UniProtKB/TrEMBL annotation:
Gene3D superfamilies, per database record: 1.10.10.160, P-loop containing nucleotide triphosphate hydrolases
Name of this protein: UvrD-like helicase ATP-binding domain-containing protein
Keywords: ATP-binding, Helicase, Hydrolase, Nucleotide-binding
Domain UvrD-like helicase ATP-binding: 197-590
Record GO terms (molecular function): 3'-5' DNA helicase activity; ATP binding; DNA binding; hydrolase activity
InterPro entries according to UniProt: DExx_box_DNA_helicase_dom_sf, DNA_helicase_UvrD/REP, HelD_bacillota, P-loop_NTPase, UvrD-like_ATP-bd, UvrD-like_helicase_C
Any one GO biological process: recombinational repair
Phylogenetic placement of the source organism: Bacteria, Bacillati, Bacillota, Bacilli, Bacillales
C-alpha cells in the first residue's frame, strides 16, 4: 500500500509541516536573540571599566553563556530541520487516560506556552521506550524513579529534505526494516550517527550507569566505535548539570581514525569533547615529543619471525604489566627515601624544621602530591617559618644587646664606657648582618640537597636499579629487558611500551603538565592497551569512569595489549564494580562476508573467542582467486573496482599485509595509468576524496569501506596467530563486497578456510 492511502497520512503530513514551521519560527527568534545578546556583550565590554568590576564581569559572562546556548540551539535546530524526528511513540502514563504521541529526534523542542513537547530528544528517559519497549506495558527510569506506562504505538519515519516519504508501525518483529535500509547504504570516509536504529543491546551500553566502569567486548562491526560516541552524547545530555563536555575524552588509535570519527559528535549536537590518541595525551602531559621507535616495527618483526621473538614478546608484556607498575612504585619509594634529609634546617642555633619533621612532610602529610611538588611544599614551609623565626631572632639579638648596652652605659670610666658601647654596637650590627645573610641563603642552601632529575633520567635510573629489578624477575629475564631498555635509552630512544611508565612517573614525580579536567574516559580499540596503560590512565585521571571497548579477535598487538578481559577486571577494577557486556551481533557486513571471516578467526588460539553474528543481510559471495602474474591480479582489481563504482559503491580499499606490500600494489596500479586517484594510507592521513586507497592490514582496523580487495602479491597470511588476526581484521572491513586475490603460493592460511 502506498503510504498516501494510510488513514493517518494527512495528519502525519500536517504534524511534520507544523514542526518545520515551528522550528523556523524558533530559529528566527533565536537569531534575533543572538543579535540582541551580541549587542549586550558589546555593551558589557564597554561598561567593564565603568561598572563595579565584578558586576561588569558577571554581566559579560552571563551574556557570553546565553550567546553560546543560543548558538548551540541554533546549530542544533539547523541540523535537524530537514529531518526533525525519526519516530513516534504513543504512550499513556499509568495514572492518566490520555495517550500522548511523542516525536523523537536529535534535538529537544518545547512550546513554552503549553509545555507541549514538539520534539523529544533521543537521549531523554522516555525515549528509552523506543529502543527497548514492546507494545503494551513499559517502564523507564527517570531521575526521580521508575515510571510505568502503556505503549500503544511505535512508528518510524523516513523523512528526507523535509518530505515525508514513508512510515511504518513497528514492534520487535518488523523493527529490522529501517536498520536494513541503513546498512544497505554506502560507506564514505566518515562514520555516521545511528540514533534512529540503535539496537537494544547497544542501547544498554549507551545508557549504562556512568559511575561504574564498563568493558564492552564487541565483535567486528558490532558498533563499538559508533556507540562509544553515542554514549558520550547521552552522558553529556543526562549529566550535563554536573559534567561539562571537556570532562569527557575519547582515545582512538591514530589520527586517521580520529578524522574518521570526527563528524559523529557534532552531528549529535555535542562539541568540545576531547578526541585524541593515547600517545598524544602522554606527550602533551610530559611536555615532550618522544622519540619513539616506530610501534609497527615490532609488529613487522613478529610478522617476519626470528630467534628473539619470545624475548621481544616478554619485553613488551613486562613493560605493560601490573608487575612493572609495582616496581615503579617501589622505585618511587626509594626516590622518596633518598630525599629524606639527615640534618635539621637551622638558622644559627635555632631550628627552622627538624629532619624528622621534613621527613614527615615528604612521606605522610603531602603524600597525595607528586614527589617534587612535596619538595616545593617543604621549601615554602621553610620560607614561611624562616620569616617568623628571623623576626624572633632579630628581636632576641636586639634585646640581648640592649640589656648589655644598658649595663655598659652605667660604667663609671668614660673611656672604657665608650669603648664598650662602641664594641657592643659593632657586635650587634655584625650579628644582625650575619643573621640576615644566613637567612638569605638558608633555604636555598638547605634545599640544594633535594636534587632533581628529569623524567628521562629517572626512567633510566629505574632500569639501572638492579637490586630493585632482581626482586621481580629471574636473573636471565632481568638482563634481557634491562639491556634492551638501556640500549634504547642510550640512543635517546624509547618505544610505545615505555609510555605507560613515563606517564605514571610524570604524574607521581612532577604532576602532569596540563590541568586534566577529564573525569570520564572512553577508550576505543582497547584490546591494544596494556594493563599498565589502563592503570596509569586511571591513576592520572583520578577516576574510574571508564568505558572500554574492544575486540580480542582483532588484538593484533596482543603481545603488548590485553590478553583477556578477566585480567583487566581483576587488575584494573579489582573492587568488582565494573560492568562487562558482550556484543555479538555485527552490523557492518553481509552474512556471506562475515561467514568467511569467521572461518579465518576460528584458527586463532586466543581462548574464549566469541564469533560475530551478522545481521541478516545478504550480498554477493566473496571472491577468492589465485593469479600467475602480478599484472593479471592488479588488472582484475581495477576491472572489479570499475564495476563496483558503476554499482554505486564509492569507497574502495585494497588491503596489503604490510606497507611494503602496499607500495608494491601502488607501483603496479600506476603501471595501468587508470586516471584514478589512488593513494597509500598511513596512520596520519585522511582518505576522503580518493577513488581507491591502499592500506596496510595493521592500519585498517576500525575503518570500513563499501568494497575491499585483499591482495597478496609477495606476502601471504600464514597460520601464525598474528596473521590470522590481521586477515580477520582485513576481511571484516567491507560493507558490501570482498575479493581476496593472491599470487600462486601465497595462500597458506586461505587454503584452510
Ligand atoms: N544500530 C545500528 N544501526 C545502523 N548501523 C549500525 C548500527 N550499529 C552499527 N552500525 C554500523 O555498523 C558499522 C560498524 O560500526 P562500528 O565501526 O562502530 O563497529 P565496531 O564494532 O567499532 O567495528 P570494528 O571493531 O570492526 O572496527 C558502521 O557502519 C555503523 O554505522
Amino acid at each position: 500500500m502506498t503510504i498516501k492511502l494510510h488513514r493517518d497520512y494527512g495528519q502525519e503530513c500536517t504534524r511534520l509541516d507544523e514542526t518545520k514551521d515551528y522550528i523556523e519560527y524558533v530559529l528566527h527568534e533565536s537569531e534575533h536573540n543572538e543579535k540582541a545578546i551580541r549587542e549586550n556583550i558589546k555593551e558589557a565590554y564597554a561598561n567593564l571599566n565603568s561598572l563595579d568590576a565584578s558586576e561588569g564581569y558577571i554581566a559579560l559572562l552571563t551574556n557570553v553563556k546565553f550567546f553560546e546556548m543560543t548558538r548551540g540551539n541554533i546549530r542544533q535546530l539547523q541540523q535537524v530541520k530537514k529531518r526533525p524526528y525519526f519516530c513516534r511513540i504513543d504512550v499513556q502514563p499509568d495514572d492518566t487516560d490520555k495517550i500522548q504521541p511523542l516525536y523523537i529526534g536529535k534535538a529537544s523542542l518545547f512550546r513554552p506556552d503549553t509545555q507541549e513537547p514538539v520534539i523529544v530528544d533521543w537521549r531523554s528517559p522516555i525515549a528509552n521506550v523506543y529502543y527497548e519497549g514492546r507494545i503494551g506495558e513499559v517502564s523507564y527510569e527517570t531521575a526521580t524513579g521508575t515510571e510505568r506506562a502503556e505503549l500503544h504505538l511505535k512508528r518510524q519515519y523516513t523523512i528526507e529534505e523535509g518530505n515525508l516519504l514513508d512510515y511504518r508501525d513497528i514492534d520487535i518483529t518488523t523493527r529490522d526494516e529501517l536498520l536494513q535500509e541503513s546498512l544497505g547504504g554506502s560507506a564514505d570516509s566518515r562514520l555516521k550517527d545511528i540514533v534512529s536504529t540503535i539496537q537494544e543491546e547497544q542501547n544498554r551500553v549507551i545508557r549504562a550507569d556512568m559511575h561504574r566502569p564498563m568493558i564492552v567486548q564487541g565483535a567486528a562491526g558490532s558498533g563499538k566505535t559508533t556507540i562509544a560516541l553515542h554514549r558520550i552524547a547521552y552522558l553529556i545530555y543526562t549529566y550535563g548539570d554536573r559534567f561539562n563536555p571537556d570532562q569527557f575524552m575519547i582515545l582512538a588509535p591514530h589520527q586517521l581514525f580520529l578524522k574518521y570519527i570526527a563528524d559523529v559528535l557534532p552531528e549529535l549536537g555535542v562539541e568540545a569533547v576531547r578526541q585524541t590518541t593515547y600517545l598524544d595525551f602522554v606527550q602533551e602531559n610530559i611536555g615532550k615529543k618522544l622519540k619513539l621507535t616506530d610501534p609497527n616495527l615490532r609488529l613487522f618483526h613478529f610478522l617476519e619471525g626470528g630467534d628473539d621473538l619470545e624475548q621481544l614478546r616478554f619485553i613488551s608484556r613486562f613493560k605493560g604489566s601490573a608487575t612493572c607498575k609495582q616496581l615503579i612504585d617501589r622505585y618511587l619509594d626509594r626516590v622518596t627515601l633518598r630525599l629524606l634529609p639527615q640534618d635539621n634546617c637551622m638558622l644559627g642555633k635555632r631550628v627552622i624544621a627538624t629532619a624528622e619533621e621534613i621527613a614527615k612532610f615528604l612521606r605522610e602529610d603531602y603524600v597525595h602530591l607528586p614527589i617534587y611538588k612535596r619538595v616545593e611544599k617543604v621549601k615554602k614551609i621553610l620560607q614561611d617559618r624562616l620569616k617568623v623565626k628571623k623576626k624572633q631572632l632579630q628581636k632576641d639579638i636586639l634585646d640581648h644587646y640592649d640589656e648589655r648596652l644598658e649595663v655598659a652605659l652605667a660604667m663609671q670610666n668614660p673611656v672604657q664606657r665608650k669603648a664598650k658601647v662602641i664594641k657592643l654596637m659593632d657586635d650587634k650590627e655584625a650579628l644582625l648582618k650575619k643573621m640576615e645573610a644566613d637567612a638569605k641563603t638558608l633555604v636555598k642552601t638547605y634545599m640544594a640537597q633535594f636534587s632533581k632529575l628529569d623524567l628521562a633520567a629517572h626512567y633510566r635510573e629505574f632500569w639501572q636499579d638492579e637490586v630493585l629489578l632482581s626482586t621481580a624477575m629471574s636473573e636471565l629475564e632481568l638482563r634481557g629487558v634491562q639491556e634492551h631498555s638501556l640500549a634504547l635509552l642510550g640512543k635517546k630512544r624509547m618505544e610505545l611500551e615505555d609510555t605507560a611508565a613515563l606517564l605514571y612517573l610524570q604524574h607521581k614525580l612532577f604532576g602532569l603538565l596540563t590541568e586534566v579536567k577529564v573525569r570520564n574516559l572512553v577508550i576505543d580499540e582497547a584490546q591494544d592497551y596494556s594493563i599498565f596503560q589502563l592503570l596509569a590512565l586511571k591513576e592520572v585521571l583520578g577516576s574510574e569512569m571508564f568505558t572500554i571497548l574492544g575486540d580480542l579477535s582483532q588484538g593484533i598487538h596482543s603481545y603488548r595489549g590485553v590478553e583477556s578481559w578477566e585480567s583487566v577486571l581483576e587488575t584494573v577494577f579489582p573492587n568488582g564494580n565494573c560492568q562487562f557486556l558482550v556484543l555479538e551481533q555485527s552490523y557492518r557486513t553481509t552474512v556471506e562476508i562475515m561467514t568467511l571471516a569467521n572461518r579465518v578467526i576460528v584458527h586463532s588460539k586466543t581462548p574464549n573467542l566469541v564469533l560475530a553474528k551478522p545481521v541478516v543481510r545478504h550480498g554477493e559471495e566473496p571472491k577468492q582467486s589465485v593469479f600467475a602474474t602480478e599484472q593479471e591480479l592488479i588488472a582484475q582489481v581495477l576491472a572489479d573496482s570499475e564495476r563496483y563504482r558503476a554499482e554505486g559503491l564509492n569507497s574502495l580499499a585494497v588491503i596489503g599485509k604490510t606497507m611494503a606490500e602496499c607500495k608494491r600494489i601502488k607501483h603496479w596500479i600506476d603501471h595501468f595509468d587508470t586516471g584514478l586517484s589512488v593513494t597509500v594510507l598511513d596512520e596520519k592521513e585522511d582518505y576522503s576524496g580518493h577513488d581507491l586507497v591502499i592500506v596496510p592490514s595493521y592500519v585498517v582496523k576500525g575503518l570500513e569501506f563499501d568494497g575491499v580487495f585483499i591482495v597478496n602479491l609477495e606476502e601471504e597470511y600464514t597460520t601464525e596467530e598474528l596473521d590470522v588476526k590481521l586477515l580477520y581484521v582485513a576481511m571484516t572491513r567491507p560493507l558490501h563486497r570482498l575479493a581476496v586475490y593472491s599470487m600462486e603460493g601465497k595462500t597458506q592460511l586461505l587454503d584452510l578456510i
